[in-house]
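name: query_chain
kind: protein
chains: 1
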Amino acid sequence: MVEIKPTTSTVQMDDGVNLRVKAIGENSKSTKPLLIALHGAPGLSTSVEPEATFTFLSDIFRVLVFDARGSGGSDMTGPYSHDRWIKDIEILRKWAGAEKFVLAGWSYGGFISLDYAVLHADKLLGLMLRDTWANGILGQMTALGNILTDDRLHVDVARQVRVWSGNLRDDKDFEEAIPEILPIYAPPEDPSLKGPVKDNDELKGFEGMDERAAYNSATQNAAFSINVPCFDVRQKLKDIKTPTLVVVGRHDRITPVEFSQEIANGIPGSRLEIFEHSGHNPASDETEKFRQVTLDFLRTVI
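structure:
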């Protein structure tokens, strides 16, 4: 595989907001299909995670990753709504010059991907959903419940309630809330695999947190006080005709297996892949298997 250096651009949306966008795999082969990958955790995550996850496809795809408005290096300017984030994806699709593309969403990015698929199925070659859910209230309450009952965690209960209900006091409140829950995202220690999870080495980047990351509580609050309680596509899953791969870690306590099973059961002809040794991110927990499963799926849609 020939290494193709990513190019970083600032792309302006129709309302003047600038997004930090990175294209990987752009070269003279303009016929390569486009894959747009969405990060999770608005106001916390950045394009770092999807870049690390999907760069391996750059010899056969143009991979586009970006910091959503309100996250990372993009403008901290709302509205922070699913409709607006979906419109931003549409603008980036056109900017990339693609009529159709593969959309991959992880965690909160999966919510956006599902809403996009309901609205714009005609634009999709394929849909990849990784560790996500189809119903917001049930999902956020389940995640909070699992956090508050996990023996590995020692959390400030009131602060976690503020995080998951979208009522953070300020950015500092957000910054203090995240480190205390990091272990719940990892799979249990398994000596037959790669050994114990290292506190900040392996987990620091799981949500795309890097030197550009900025805790933006306004984005998180909008996402979890307004967007998530209104998000429910369970009755619309049957209308998604796009070839779909659903991936989940067996030990995911943020978006548990039953949520992915519900999505896979609802989308006709979809494929469910459960990663037995993974937590919230099989792409990092079982990288080799994840890449093979991804390639097997993508070969069926291009």
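note: The domain at 7-298 is CATH 3.40.50.1820 (Rossmann fold).
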